C-alpha cells in the first residue's frame, strides 16, 4: 500500500482491533496521546487497563500506562486514577524487588525476579519522571546502561541475569534498542515540559542527550540502504524488520523538534519512514515487525501499529513547528 492518502485511520483501527496486555495498552495509549491528546479513546484504554490490572503479574509492565493515567488525572480529577498512580509508585519505590545497585527487576515472577531487560527503558523511567521523581528515573537509566550497554559498539544487549551475573540474551536486538531510544526521548520530553526548574535539569538533560546519541549512532551504523534494519542489528542472517525504523524515525523527529538533534539526522528518519509506509497493507497492518506473540519472526503487533502512529505524529509536530518558524 503505497498511496499518499493518510494511512493513520487504518493503522489506528487495526491497532485497536488487537487484544492487549498492559504494556501493549500502554504503547497504544502513548500513540493516541501524541496523535490526539487527551482523547476519549485514551480514556477508554486507561479504563480497560485498570479493569484488568490485578490480573497482570508483571512488575514494570503495568507502568506503561502510568504516564497517561497521570495526565488524565490532571484533566479529569478521577480519584481512582490517583489511587492507582500512587499505589504503583509506592510499590515500585519502596516494596518491589531490586538488585544491589537499586535497579528494579523487570518481573515479580519467581522465575524472572532477578532479570533486567532493556524494555524497562521505555516503561519505568518515564513513569518516575512524570510522577515527579526525576532522581529515581535517572538511577534506573544509568543502572541499565551499566549492565546492558556495549560502549564500543554503541548498542544494548537485551537481558541481564543479576543472579548469575551474565547476559541471558547477548544479542543486539533492534527492537529493544528502539525501546531504549524511545524511552530516553520521552524522559527528555518530560524534563523539558515539567522539570526545567529542577536543580539537576541541565545535568540530567545533558547526560540523557549524550547517551541517546551513543545509542542512535550505534543503530544508524546498521541501517540498510532501504531504511530498514535486520532484526538482530549486526546479523544479516536475521530477518529484515520494520518496527526499529519507526522507532528511530520517531526519536529523530522528536529530537530535531526539541533542537538537541541537528537537521542532518532527518535524512535517516525520512528514509526509514518511506520504507515503513511501503509495509502498510490494505487493512492498516504494519507488516514485518517482530510479530506477536513470540516476537521472533516477522508479523504484526500492537507496538508495530503504535509506533507508526507515533512516527507520524512526531513528523507532523516537527512540520508544524517548521511552518510556525517561517
User: Which architecture does the CATH hierarchy give at level 2?
Assistant: Alpha/alpha barrel
Give me the CATH fold name. Answer: Glycosyltransferase
How many domain regions? 1
What's the total helix number? 12
Structural classification: mainly alpha
* Number of DSSP strand runs: 9
Question: What would you note in describing this structure?
Answer:
With 326 residues, the chain is mostly helical. It contains 12 helices and 9 strands. It has a single domain, classed as Glycosyltransferase (Alpha/alpha barrel), CATH 1.50.10.10. It has helices spanning 8-16, 22-36, 40-52, 66-76, 79-95, 120-131, 134-148, 174-194, 201-220, 243-257, 266-277, 302-325; strands spanning 115-117, 149-150, 155-156, 159-161, 166-169, 229-230, 240-241, 289-290, 298-299. α2 (22-36) packs antiparallel against α3 (40-52) and α2 runs parallel beside α12. The relative contact order is 0.12. The mean pLDDT is 90.
Short description:
The protein has helices spanning 8-16, 22-36, 40-52, 66-76, 79-95, 120-131, 134-148, 174-194, 201-220, 243-257, 266-277, 302-325, and strands at 115-117, 149-150, 155-156, 159-161, 166-169, 229-230, 240-241, 289-290, 298-299.
Topology:
Elements: H1 8-16, H2 22-36, H3 40-52, H4 66-76, H5 79-95, E1 115-117, H6 120-131, H7 134-148, E2 149-150, E3 155-156, E4 159-161, E5 166-169, H8 174-194, H9 201-220, E6 229-230, E7 240-241, H10 243-257, H11 266-277, E8 289-290, E9 298-299, H12 302-325
Antiparallel strand pairs: 1-4, 2-3, 4-5, 6-7, 8-9
Amino acid at each position: 500500500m503505497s498511496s499518499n492518502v493518510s494511512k493513520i485511520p487504518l493503522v489506528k483501527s487495526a491497532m485497536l482491533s488487537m487484544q492487549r496486555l498492559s504494556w501493549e495498552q500502554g504503547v497504544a495509549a502513548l500513540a493516541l496521546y501524541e496523535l490526539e491528546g487527551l482523547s476519549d479513546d485514551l480514556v477508554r484504554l486507561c479504563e480497560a487497563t485498570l479493569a484488568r490490572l490485578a490480573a497482570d503479574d508483571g512488575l514494570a509492565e503495568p507502568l506503561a500506562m502510568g504516564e497517561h493515567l497521570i495526565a488524565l488525572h490532571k484533566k479529569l480529577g478521577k480519584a481512582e486514577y490517583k489511587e492507582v498512580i500512587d499505589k504503583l509508585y509506592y510499590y515500585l519505590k519502596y516494596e518491589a524487588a531490586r538488585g544491589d545497585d537499586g535497579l528494579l527487576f523487570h518481573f515479580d515472577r519467581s522465575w524472572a525476579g532477578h532479570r533486567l531487560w532493556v524494555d524497562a527503558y521505555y516503561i519505568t523511567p518515564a513513569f518516575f519522571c512524570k510522577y515527579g521523581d526525576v532522581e529515581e528515573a535517572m538511577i534506573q537509566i544509568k543502572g541499565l546502561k551499566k549492565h546492558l550497554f556495549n560502549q564500543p559498539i554503541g548498542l544494548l544487549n537485551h537481558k541481564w541475569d543479576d543472579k548469575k551475573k551474565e547476559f541471558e540474551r547477548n544479542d543486539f536486538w533492534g527492537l529493544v534498542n528502539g525501546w531504549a531510544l524511545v524511552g530516553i526521548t520521552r524522559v527528555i520530553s518530560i524534563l523539558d515540559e515539567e522539570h526545567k526548574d529542577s536543580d539537576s535539569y541541565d545535568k540530567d538533560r545533558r547526560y540523557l542527550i549524550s547517551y541517546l546519541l551513543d545509542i542512535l549512532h550505534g543503530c544508524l551504523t546498521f541501517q540498510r540502504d532501504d531504511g530498514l534494519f535486520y532484526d538482530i542489528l549486526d546479523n544479516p542472517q536475521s530477518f529484515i524488520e520494520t518496527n526499529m525504523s519507526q522507532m528511530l524515525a520517531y526519536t529523530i523527529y522528536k529530537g530535531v523538534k526539541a533542537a538537541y538533534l541537528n537537521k542532518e539526522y532527518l535524512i535517516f528518519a525520512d528514509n526509514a519512514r518511506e520504507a515503513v509506509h511501503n509495509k502498510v497493507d490494505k487493512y492498516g497492518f504494519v507488516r514485518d515487525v517482530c510479530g506477536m506473540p513470540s516476537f521472533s519472526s516477522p508479523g504484526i503487533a500492537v507496538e508495530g501499529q503504535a509506533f507508526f502512529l507515533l512516527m507520524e505524529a512526531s513528523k507532523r509536530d516537527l512540520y508544524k513547528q517548521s511552518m510556525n518558524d517561517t
